[in-house]
């Protein structure tokens, strides 16, 4: 989630003393009002809480809630370890940087997976200040029209092969643009480079030819998520009733609004041009122009209802581009840390593409690559808290656990590194782990990258599992084919593949530098055709 433009990383303010930084110096009446609201709110929540669930590392008079929440940014993993030692395999509560959470053990993932009264969209709205100007994309996840869900399920996933078709050529262009043709070793911040690559590939599918190489749009789509996450985190330390006022004075919130305005100007211009072309064709009795991208799909799914196209596109961006970047970049870092692992992956790619070209069966049969990607997710989940949900009514879960309306629930993702499930070498990056599992008939399905389970929550689980994971799998595999065949990779001296930990989030370190050089590929992947098969639309 970085770019060439000067945007702060979410970790850059974690060590500061004040949650709002030095940009905001509220007057005494704002501080007083904040304290009154905070005390009243905490008292009300404590009165409602199910006290049978232990609270681990709670705030104290000497360590009040605001300080405890900031501490969690530094101590989140140790608090999680402390909790699991204290309560074993039972639910517990913690005070995270975003407020109170009930943390459920991994076994609860299956029982809550389709629970209608535990809502993912409501969780996102609450954490990212839906209703405050600039944060509209975070509400589109739970929009009544279901445009986003319909576009992903009915278009992006249903016509996956057709959607994937332009990716090989766009990857060839983007890889050459970013990494070049030099046979000499060069270096680049890994996260920046991979974010640029993924933004270009995703924008080709989401926005078509008009904007996928538009540098202004690429800057907006890359930067909006970083800026909005920063702004949301700072704003969360302001009592909720005061946020509609305070956000106008926060520089980060001002940047969020500016980026949304830029996105609207770019997207709305393209949409109006397309609508005008269709009107002109209709007036002349000709065939209307057709497009195979998310702009067109949203126009189809809105069914004539008004919607904010820029908000829709930015929602796609933070839901797809940045999570895909995390997976691809971390995989590249693991492989660059152990370059000997690249050889068997190259051999698999050459064998399958030479035999089948860019057919969907070739991507599906890249079982070692699929295993390596799933192993990346297992080794570095983007957070140890998965399946984020907000209770829309009082609910009783298995084992008599009561969750009150408005409370937030997450599932502990520690099963992904449980030696009882994955073997004693859980701290070793083993690209063969899930390929071996795939050879067992009873585990064949569970071992695939796109399959979710309580033991592997990288894509969530149940009705709110990531619906775009099938496209993301194809996108990352196409990108890896180009990157591994065309370039040699290694970590720059002094760098590691270790993530940067903030709270319980495990992010790619934005300072990690990767080295690369152009090599002679065993197969000219740029010349291969992509076949549209199996009844998909042309």
From TrEMBL:
Alphabetical keyword list: Heme, Iron, Metal-binding, Monooxygenase, Oxidoreductase
Keyword Metal-binding: yes
An annotated Gene Ontology molecular function: oxidoreductase activity, acting on paired donors, with incorporation or reduction of molecular oxygen
Protein name: Cytochrome p450 monooxygenase
Alphabetical list of InterPro entries matching this protein: Cyt_P450 (IPR001128), Cyt_P450_CS (IPR017972), Cyt_P450_E_grp-IV (IPR002403), Cyt_P450_sf (IPR036396)
Keyword hit for Iron: yes
Positions annotated to bind heme: 466
PANTHER family named in the record: CYTOCHROME P450, CYTOCHROME P450 MONOOXYGENASE AUSG-RELATED
Domain of life: Eukaryota
PROSITE patterns: CYTOCHROME_P450 (PS00086)
Family: Belongs to the cytochrome P450 family.
Required cofactor(s): heme
């Amino acid at each position: 989630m970085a770019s060439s433009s000067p945007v702060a990383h979410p970790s850059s303010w974690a060590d500061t003393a004040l949650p709002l930084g030095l940009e905001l110096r509220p007057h005494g009446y704002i501080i007083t009002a904040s304290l009154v609201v905070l005390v009243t709110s905490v008292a009300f929540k404590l009165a409602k809480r199910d006290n049978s669930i232990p609270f681990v590392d709670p705030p104290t008079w000497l360590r009040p809630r605001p300080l405890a929440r900031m501490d969690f940014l530094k101590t989140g993993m140790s608090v999680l370890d402390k909790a699991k030692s204290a309560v074993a395999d039972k639910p517990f509560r913690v005070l995270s940087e975003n407020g109170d959470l009930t943390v459920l053990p991994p076994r609860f993932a299956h029982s809550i997976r389709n629970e209608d009264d535990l809502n993912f969209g409501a969780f996102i709205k609450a954490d990212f200040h839906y209703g405050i100007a600039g944060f509209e994309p975070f509400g589109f996840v739970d929009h009544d029209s279901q445009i986003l869900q319909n576009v992903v399920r009915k278009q992006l996933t249903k016509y996956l092969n057709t959607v994937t078709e332009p990716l090989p050529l766009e990857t060839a262009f983007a890889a050459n643009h970013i990494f070049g043709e030099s046979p000499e070793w060069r270096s680049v911040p890994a996260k920046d480079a991979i974010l640029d690559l993924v933004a270009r590939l995703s924008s080709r599918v989401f926005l078509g030819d008009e904007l996928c190489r538009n540098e202004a749009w690429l800057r907006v789509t890359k930067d909006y998520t970083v800026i909005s996450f920063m702004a949301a985190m700072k704003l969360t330390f302001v009592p909720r009733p005061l946020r509609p006022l305070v956000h106008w004075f926060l520089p980060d919130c001002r940047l969020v609004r500016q980026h949304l305005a830029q996105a609207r100007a770019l997207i709305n211009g393209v949409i109006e041009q397309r609508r005008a072309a269709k009107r002109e064709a209709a007036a002349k009795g000709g065939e209307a122009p057709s497009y195979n991208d998310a702009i067109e799909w949203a126009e189809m799914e809105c069914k004539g209802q008004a919607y904010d196209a820029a908000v829709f596109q930015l929602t796609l961006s933070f839901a797809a581009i940045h999570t895909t970047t995390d997976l691809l970049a971390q995989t590249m870092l693991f492989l660059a840390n152990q370059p000997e692992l690249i050889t068997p992956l190259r051999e698999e790619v050459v064998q399958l593409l030479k035999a089948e070209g860019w057919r969907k069966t070739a991507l599906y049969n890249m079982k070692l690559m699929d295993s390596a990607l799933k192993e990346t997710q297992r080794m570095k989940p983007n957070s140890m808290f998965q399946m984020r949900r907000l209770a829309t009514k009082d609910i009783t879960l298995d084992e008599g656990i009561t969750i009150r309306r408005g409370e937030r629930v997450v599932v502990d993702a520690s099963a992904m590194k449980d030696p009882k499930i994955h073997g004693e070498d859980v701290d070793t990056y083993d690209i063969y782990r899930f390929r071996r599992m795939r050879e067992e008939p009873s585990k064949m399905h569970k071992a695939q990258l796109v399959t979710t389970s309580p033991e592997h929550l990288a894509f969530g689980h149940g009705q709110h599992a990531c619906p775009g994971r099938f496209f993301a799998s194809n996108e990352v595999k196409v990108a890896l084919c180009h990157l591994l065949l065309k370039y040699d990779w290694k970590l720059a001296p002094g760098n590691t593949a270790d993530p940067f930990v903030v709270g319980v989030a495990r992010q790619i370190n934005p300072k990690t530098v990767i080295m690369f050089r152009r090599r002679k590929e065993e197969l000219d992947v740029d010349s291969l055709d992509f076949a549209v098969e199996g009844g998909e639309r042309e």
